[in-house]
């Protein structure tokens, strides 16, 4: 509501990416929570329904690190190339970037779907399974492809992270007096991206724990879900929302109902000039 109501937020690439991140994470949390509830209550569901939930969940999960990388680049341009920021970071280019984020995430999961359709027999799609990625996309090709794509994304996002934030760190140190605040912001950004990167190593980490504790499958699955999926998404509102002075000011106005008509010129009633002239 705050984002749509104020043009200063809806016309800023930084806030557009932030709102996309929030909506994406809300969708991911809702779907992943639904999958976990199903795994603990129903245990198994039909394959087509599971496929729909899994594909959307994987898409939104992979979107988060890519979105954060895009926000890192935008922050780098704003601090290190401020004179060209308005030319490089436009609203149109921001929406194109969001489309590219979804396209890259789709390229990671759609090949698994095609491999599944080509390798699994027809009766598999009429059966009920435990709805987890390893139980659906169980082909050796899918596992190798997933590991390769995760490694590529891991390397690319970390390269973007190190390059942009070290440049921001040096630029903030030399150009601003409040270096401590800039440094803390960079540390929080890096911490959040570090948590999101666990998405790429989760399969290997979970398999290692299952090898050591084979009887604790559900406990390991739930612990990995909390650490990898929930924890990073609690950091986003703090880093990009509440710590941002502009966004915090508008949210505070909305929550405290202090938005007066004087602060919104469009709500001010224009004087009736015609009637005044007639009275004279």
From TrEMBL:
Upper lineage: Eukaryota, Metazoa, Chordata, Craniata, Vertebrata
Entry keywords, A to Z: Membrane, Transmembrane, Transmembrane helix
Example of a GO MF term: G protein-coupled receptor activity
SUPFAM superfamilies with a match to the protein in the record: Family A G protein-coupled receptor-like
Coiled-coil annotated spans: none
PROSITE patterns documented for this protein: G_PROTEIN_RECEP_F1_2
InterPro entries, sorted: GPCR1_Superfamily_Member, GPCR_Rhodpsn, GPCR_Rhodpsn_7TM
Membrane is among the record's keywords: yes
Signal sequence annotation: none
Domain G-protein coupled receptors family 1 profile: 1-240
Name of protein: G-protein coupled receptors family 1 profile domain-containing protein
């Amino acid at each position: 509501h705050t984002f749509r109501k104020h043009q200063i937020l809806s016309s800023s690439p930084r806030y557009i990416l932030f709102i996309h991140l929030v909506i994406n994470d809300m969708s991911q949390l809702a779907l992943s929570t639904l999958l976990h509830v199903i795994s603990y209550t129903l245990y198994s569901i039909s394959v087509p329904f599971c496929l729909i939930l899994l594909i959307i969940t994987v898409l939104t999960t992979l979107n988060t690190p890519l979105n954060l990388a895009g926000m890192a680049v935008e922050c780098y341009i704003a601090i290190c190339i401020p004179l060209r920021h308005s030319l490089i970071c436009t609203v149109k280019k921001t929406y194109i970037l969001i489309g590219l984020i979804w396209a890259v995430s789709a390229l990671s999961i759609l090949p698994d779907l095609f491999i599944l359709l080509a390798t699994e027999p027809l009766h598999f799609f009429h059966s009920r399974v435990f709805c987890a990625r390893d139980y659906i996309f169980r082909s050796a090709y899918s596992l190798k492809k997933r590991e390769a794509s995760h490694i590529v994304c891991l390397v690319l996002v970390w390269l973007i992270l190190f390059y942009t934030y070290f440049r921001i760190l040096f630029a903030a140190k030399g150009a601003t007096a409040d270096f401590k605040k800039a440094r803390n912001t960079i540390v929080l950004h890096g911490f959040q991206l570090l948590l999101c990167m666990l998405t790429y190593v989760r399969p290997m980490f979970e398999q290692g724990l299952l090898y050591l504790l084979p009887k604790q499958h559900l406990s390991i699955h739930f612990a990995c879900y909390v650490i990898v999926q929930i924890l990073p998404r609690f950091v986003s509102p703090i880093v990009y929302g509440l710590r941002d002075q502009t966004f915090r000011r508008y949210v505070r106005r909305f929550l405290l109902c202090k938005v007066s008509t004087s602060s919104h010129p469009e709500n001010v009633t224009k004087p009736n000039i015609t009637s005044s002239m007639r009275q004279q």
